[in-house]
Amino acid sequence: MDVNAAVAAAAAIAGVLTGVIAMLAFRWSERDQKRPTRTSLHTDPVLPPGVDTVLSVLRSSAVVLDEADAVVKASSAAYALGLVRGGKLSVDPMLKMARDTRRDGEIRQVELDLPRRGTGRGEALAVSARVAPLGSRLVLLLVEDLTEARRIEAVRRDFVANVSHELKTPVGALSLLSEAVMDASDDPEAVERFAGRMQIEATRLTNLVQELIDLSRVQNDDPLEDAEPVGVDELVAEAIDRCRHQAGTKQITMAAGGTADLHVYGNRGQLAAALGNLVENAVNYSPARTRVGIAASRVAAPGGDHIEVAVTDQGIGISEKDKERVFERFYRVDPARSRATGGTGLGLAIVKHVAASHGGEVTVWSSEGQGSTFTLRLPEAGAARDRAHQHPDLDDEVEESPEPSPYEPLPAPEVLP
Q1: Dist CA 399 CA 111 (whole Å)
Q2: Rounded Cα gap, residues 350 and 221, in angstroms
Q3: pLDDT tens for residues 133-158?
Q4: pLDDT tens for residues 205-248?
Q5: Who contacts 204 (Cβ-Cβ below 8 Å, separation ≥6)?
Q6: Which residue, among 300, 310, 308, 413, has the nearest Cα to 371 in the 3D structure?
Q7: Which segments of 313-368 does DSSP mark as H helices, in order?
Q8: Average pLDDT for residues 32-54, to the nearest whole number?
Q9: Helix (H, G, I), strand (E, B) or coil at 314
Q10: Nearest CA to 58 among 44, 78, 39, 72?
C-alpha cells in the first residue's frame, strides 16, 4: 500500500513539473518573438497607428525605444550604422538624450562623430541625432548620416580658400606696383621696370581666372554634346605651337613622334587644352637646353583600342609622395618654380577632368632628378563614338584613313633655337 502511495505521489509531482516546464517554455517563446529583429522595420503592436508607415519611408535611420530603453523598432540603416546591437541602443550619448527626453518631453538634437563600424581606420562617421517623444511611453530617435556632406563642404571650403589666396597674390602685387609707379613718376627707368612687373602679374591673374573658368566648364559640361573626331597630330602641333615661346627662351628642344593619323572622339577645345597643359608643364619644369618629347601610339584594350599620348621631360621629377597629389587643384610640386613661371596649380586638375569626361585617364611616371612622363589615354575615335551611341551627323565627316605602319614618324622633330 505504501508503495502504491509513493508511486502516486511521484506521478503527481511529475505532472506538476511538466506543467511548469510547459508554461515556462510558452512564456520564453512569447518573449523571443517580441525581441527586435534585423528587418527593415518590424511590426510591434505597441506603436501608435500609422507610425510603421511613416518610419518605413523616412530616409533617416530610425530607432524606437520603450520605457526600459529596449529597442521596439529599428530600421536596417540603424543596424548598418552600428546604432543598435543586441536589441539595445549602443551609442551612449544618444541613449542619454532618449532618457532625458522621456523624462521631460523636450525634443533634443545633437551632432556626433562616431567610429566607423568594422574598420581599423581612424575616420569618424558624422551624424546628426534628433530625439522626440512618441506617445506617452515611447521615444523616437532619427539619425542622419552627414559624412558625405561634411566631405563636400570641406572640399568646397578648401577650394574657396585656395582661390582667394591665389587671387590675392597678383592683386596685392598690382596694388603695390601701381603705388611704386606713382612714387617714381619722375624716374622713367623705374616706371618701365615697375610697369613690366605689373604686366607679369596681370598676365598671371588673367591665366588664373581663365583656368578657373576652364575647370568649371570641364566639370559641368558634357564633352560629347559637341564631340567630333579629332586628329591627334593636330592636337600635338597645337600644343607645341602654344609653348613655342617658353621653350625658345629656355633653349628647350621639342620633338614629336610615334604613330601618325590617329583620331580620338571628343570636344576639340577641351582635348587641346588638356594636351597643351601637359606640354606646358613639361617645358616649365625642365632645365634649359633639355628635351621635351611628345609621342602618340595605339594600344589594345578590352573595350576597343585606345590612343596614348605621352609627354616626356628631363625636369626635376616628382617624388613618390607627390605623385598621388599632382592632380589636385592648386597643388604644386615646386611652388617657387611654379610661381616664377606663372603656374596656377590648376593645369593638371583640368587634364584629369578632361580625360575622365572623355572615358580615359591620365597617369604619371617619374623619378626625381631624371624627369617625368605624363600619359593621356583616350578611346580611339571609333570605339569612343560607339560608346556614345554614335552621332549620325558626325559619322560621315571624316573618311577612314588607311592603317599606318607602327610608329610611323610624325613630321620631323622641331628644334627650337
Answers
A1: 62
A2: 13
A3: 987 788 888 988 888 888 878 777 77
A4: 887 787 777 777 776 666 667 788 999 999 999 999 989 988 99
A5: 170, 342, 344
A6: 310
A7: 320-323, 335-340, 347-357
A8: 55
A9: coil
A10: 78
The conformation of residue 405, written as its DSSP 8-state character, comes to P
DSSP assignment string, 93-113? HHHHHHHHHHHH---EEEEEE
pLDDT tens, position by position, 381-397: 875 555 544 444 433 33
pLDDT value of residue 308: 94
CA-angle at 75, arms to 153 and 56, nearest 5°: 95
CA distances to 2, 33, 178 from 183, in Å = 131, 89, 9
Alpha carbon distances (Å) from 129 to 97, 142, 218, 307, 368? 9, 6, 38, 51, 50
* Contact by Cβ (8 Å): 311, 296: no
pLDDT score recorded for residue 105:
87
CA 268 to chain centre: 25
pLDDT of residue 394: 35
Q: Write out the H or E segment, with its range, that includes residue 30.
A: helix 2-34
Cβ(387)–Cβ(222) below 8 Å: no
Are 299 and 306 spatial neighbours (Cβ–Cβ below 8 Å)? yes
- Grid cell at residue 66: 520603450
CB atoms within 10 A of CB 237: 16
Query: Taking residues 260-286, what's their average pLDDT?
Result: 90
Contact 150, 166 (CB under 8 A): no
For residues 316 and 333, give the distance between their C-alpha atoms in angstroms, rounded to a whole number. 9
Q: Sort strands 124-134 and 108-115 into parallel, antiparallel or unpaired.
A: antiparallel
CA 52, CA 42: separation in Å to the nearest integer? 8
β-partners of residue 89 are: 84
Q: ∠ CA(58), CA(62), CA(63), 5° rounding? A: 155
C-alpha cell at 127: 551624424
Distance CA 318, CA 316 (A): 7
Strand-by-strand arrangement of the 306-312 sheet? 253-258, 291-299, 306-312, 371-379, 361-367
CA distances from 212 to 120, 208, 266, 336, 392 (A): 38, 6, 21, 21, 33
User: Cβ distance 279 to 311 under 8 Å?
Assistant: yes
pLDDT at 85: 85
pLDDT classification of 4: cutoffs 50, 70, 90: low
C-alpha cell at 268: 576639340
pTM of the model: 0.53
